[in-house]
Amino acid sequence: MTEHKEEKMGRREFLGATGAAGIMIIKPQLVRGTAANSAIRLGLLGCGKRGTTVATSFANHTAARVVALGDLFPDQLDKGKHHFDGIAAKHGYAGIDPKLMFRGPRAYQALANCPDIDLVQISTPDIFHPAHLEAAVDAGKHIYCEKPVAVDVTGCKQVMRIGEKVQNRFSLDIGFQCRNAPPFAELARRVQGGALGKIACGAAYYQSTGAFYPPYPNATPLERRIRTFLWDRVISGDIILDQNIHLVDLCNWMLDAHPVKAIGTGGRGVREDPGDCWDHFDVTFTYPHDVHVNLNSFQAGKALSDVSIRLFGAKGVAELHYKGVVGIYGEEPWEWEGSIGPASPQRGHANIYSADADWPSKKAKGISPNALEQADAEKEKAFLESITSGKFHNQAAVGAEGALSTILGRQAAYNQREMTWDEVLASDQTYDPELQRIDLSEFE
Ligand SMILES: NC(=O)c1ccc[n+]([C@@H]2O[C@H](COP(=O)([O-])OP(=O)(O)OC[C@H]3O[C@@H](n4cnc5c(N)ncnc54)[C@H](O)[C@@H]3O)[C@@H](O)[C@H]2O)c1
To answer: How far is CA 266 from CA 139, 238, 365, 427, in A?
Structure first.
């Protein structure tokens, strides 16, 4: 048996732990009142930036209505009520009932056990995801949980165990919405279909501006850490896990595998915020068949954002940008119609780039250059469809696989040595045992 086959089998077993779709189909009308033509009642946990964006998109693109809110902090809850009352008014239904607003450290339990909701959307800081996910699974609600599923190996294993409890009774999605971006889905379909031939290597870049927060002068030290969690390694998992994970997940998806080992470096060269996250990582992942993918990331300042992947194969090159070119160049060429900017490597002249002379006419036709423009809406539609059709999703294992793959890279970089998937999976790496027992009682 080749190394690749062994690896793939191992991966299937891994994903099989919680990833199987299952065969029992429950009639949609039996799923706690979520019949196909009635509204699905959504409770949002974490009324911050991402939570508000996704819940608003659910309300605008699907049959879901935001009817309940939960948050650690009252100001966030009030902001959420104001926003979602406006959305309700726009759609012509009642706003948030104040009785369905839950505040404080136990808001997640109150929301999960609230009989007036069908679906819990978990959009809290990363360290809380396993606990918040478990409460919602135990309550039997449909769940949309943000990535990463956890910040450390023990958290990922907890999520895999939680996933086993789902038992095809309801749907659980993880927020890897990039997979639902139509241009990326088409690219992945072609790569998986062999358009590149044998793949040798890849290069992924997540180059991003920094996270900026107001000073919160009256906050306690813990409150400040939670409100500015993207600066905080323990609460966010560091930039590679909180943000760059999207690229690792896309590589796992396109290569239909997870990395078997990684080596890396990185550091905190220019960031001046009071946190401890690094501002850059440089990690080389080895996938089965000795495919090497280098992930280079930078997060700081305000100067540049560009997110991309290139995969290099015997027959061609796949290129993916959040904003820019999405296409395949080589023997089986294809280019997404919204591609813009410095474009494809030309045959035989890898360093020669052409500007997109067609862009003005594409723009006139209303074509967006943002490859992710439809990602959230498509993701939410697919999730709602899984609920109303009874063909439930269970993405706990895919979420854990993406997080563990990224944690493999992070730990290799922190430890400045090569680490293997097996080593990481066998470990009980816990980011900060003290903080894992984070005491939120001051916010009661
Ligand atoms: N899928 C994506 O592309 C994407 C993009 C951005 C963020 N995210 C993820 O979304 C999550 C939230 O990120 P954000 O940028 O919205 O952060 P944010 O700080 O804007 O929002 C977090 C919210 O959670 C609340 N909160 C904090 N701790 C809580 C607790 N214990 N119980 C209840 N509420 C709590 C905060 O008060 C805040 O309202 C993170 O996991 C992040 O990784 C995903």
So the answer is: 41, 11, 43, 22
- 334 DSSP β-pair partners: 328
DSSP annotation of 344 reads: P
How far apart CA 334 and CA 319 sit, in angstroms, is 10
As a whole number of angstroms, the distance between CA 174 and CA 193 comes to 25
Ligand 1 contacts CB of residue 76 (under 6 A):
yes
Q: Judge if the beta carbon of residue 322 lies within 6 A of ligand 1.
A: no
Could you tell me the distance, in angstroms and rounded to a whole number, from the CA of residue 266 to the centre of ligand 1?
A: 25
Ligand 1 centre and the CA of 430: distance in Å?
Answer: 21
* Cα–ligand 1 centroid distance for 312 (angstroms): 35
Q: Whole-prediction pTM value?
A: 0.93
pLDDT in tens, 17-70: 544 333 233 333 334 434 444 799 999 999 999 999 999 999 999 999 999 999
For residues 372 and 395, give the distance between their C-alpha atoms in angstroms, rounded to a whole number: 20
Cα–Cα distances in Å, from 358 out to 46, 354, 365? 42, 11, 11
What b/e sequence results for 392-407 when a residue is b if at least 16 CB atoms lie within 10 Å of its CB, and e otherwise? bbbbbbbbbbbbbbbb
In Å, how far from its chain's centre is CA 160? 16
Q: Whose CA is closest to 128, among 98, 105, 96, 94?
A: 105
Q: Are 174 and 147 in contact (CB under 8 A)?
A: yes
Place of tokens 């918040």: 132
